[in-house]
């Protein structure tokens, strides 16, 4: 499938529909972050903690569309069991990103510490659910839909740019961008490279679970170092 850059015709999403899906998703996520998130957090803290809105906007529509295509979601998304090779990829890539987090902390001059006693909100949203919600949409769904039209490398590049851009509404709405230009560029580069590597991990292992595990471990390290 990946070698030719094309999927079976029955799973090929109409190009206009794919573009529309991306535009609508980005628009809704931007509106939510700037106009809804702060109110939702105050009025429904429990639901906010469990990231209900992200599950509704990022994950549920993917399963609904695959149901419309009459495809088995777990098969279409490559939510297959992890093989021995997949375990090796998960361990090696996770260690790479954990090491990067540690080195990055030292380079920017912050105190080096590793604290797992951070807020429940970060555990639920930033570690447990983040890999599931983000990998389902970007690697499991969009990467494969885009790769139905172009070769894998270019599809992975486009998906990674989209993955970078989707972080901006949250960064800007919550004023979370780093102060200096150097740190901004470093953050953007990391998000982009992370996404590119995740795409190749999916290609090599044929299991989205490997990507989900890596994503969650990376965020665990980031939260523990920043706790």
From TrEMBL:
MF term (GO), any: endopeptidase activity
Species of origin: Dendrosporobacter quercicolus
Residue intervals passing through the bilayer: 12-32, 52-68, 89-108, 123-142, 149-168, 174-194
Protein known as: CAAX prenyl protease 2/Lysostaphin resistance protein A-like domain-containing protein
Record key words, sorted: Membrane, Transmembrane, Transmembrane helix
GO BP field: CAAX-box protein maturation
Boundaries of every CAAX prenyl protease 2/Lysostaphin resistance protein A-like domain copy: 125-220
Cross-referenced InterPro entries: Rce1/LyrA-like_dom (IPR003675)
Top-rank taxon: Bacteria
